[in-house]
Specification:
The protein is built from 7 helices and 10 strands. The protein is of the alpha/beta class. The strands form 2 sheets. The chain has an 8-stranded mixed beta sheet, sandwiched between helices.
């Protein structure tokens, strides 16, 4: 079974690891990244500023068109790219930084979801959207008003899109995933942030010291394996910390579903 993936933010962190897992599995990979990404052989990558709606729309349409043209059995959009800045009290946030954060973390995934659903409407295989969210969508942090807010918005967009797709017998399955604390550059940036801007800094330093951070490749492998095994259902929001091995099979139950509303 050939699965074509479109992944955003593949130059580093979880996105880079997801790209590596997909290539390891031998499936077609299409990506949008802030910098040219040619690390993986055969990677169909487009450099795109996710803070520019015009670039997101044009690049997304081109890649989805090419992805469908490769005639896979399934197509998957993984909205992974996100920014953390601006960190600090909302009262001191730069207005341009606020707008850019909203464009990258909220508008870009919404745009790609819209384009993906519309352009694959006549695709005969299965279709999935996996949004990489965060536990910050449910837990407020002083200094993270923008990040917590846009991740909460991504969760609600996921649930709304999933509810819309329920009415279509061959609709797109839309879900979101909380990967947990992963040993990425974003985590390193958090540890370098002054406590005056982010009062919970010490907690993140402690998690690193105690060895609690997860390896990006292990998290990426779990996400892809759970998808491949049919564990991600339409309208589910999944916390990877709840994944379990049952009789040699990895399973997970959603933390939230559209049925809860």
């Amino acid at each position: 079974m050939s699965i074509a993936y479109l992944v955003t933010g593949t130059t580093r962190g979880i996105g880079r690891a997801i790209a590596e897992v997909i290539k390891d599995d031998g499936h077609p990979l299409f990506s949008l990244s802030s910098q040219p990404d040619s690390a993986a052989p055969g990677l169909c990558n487009t450099k795109c500023d996710l803070g520019r709606p015009d670039q997101v729309s044009a690049a997304g349409r081109n890649l989805i068109r090419t992805m469908i043209g490769s005639k896979p059995d399934a197509v998957v959009l993984i909205n992974n790219a996100a920014v953390l800045d601006p960190i600090g009290p909302l009262a001191s946030a730069d207005p341009e930084a606020i707008v850019r954060h909203l464009l990258v973390n909220q508008a870009a995934p919404a745009t790609l979801m819209s384009i993906f659903i519309a352009m694959t409407s006549h695709f005969s295989g299965t279709r999935h959207i996996i949004n990489i969210s965060s536990g910050a969508a449910r837990a407020p942090y002083a200094g993270w008003a923008m990040y917590c807010g846009t991740k909460a918005a991504l969760d609600m967009m996921t649930l709304c899109a999933a509810m819309e797709q329920q009415a279509n017998p061959i609709g797109v399955d839309v879900c979101a995933v909380y990967p947990g604390k992963v040993d990425t550059g974003m985590q390193a940036s958090i540890r370098r942030t002054a406590p005056s801007l982010f009062p919970r800094q010490a907690d993140f330093i402690g998690a690193k010291v105690r060895g609690e951070l997860l390896a990006p490749k292990a998290v990426a492998r779990l996400i892809i394996d759970l998808y491949r095994k049919g564990q991600f259902k339409n309208g589910g929001i999944y916390d990877l910390r709840s994944a379990r091995i049952d009789r040699g099979r990895c399973t997970i139950e959603p933390a939230r579903t559209i049925e809860a509303f």
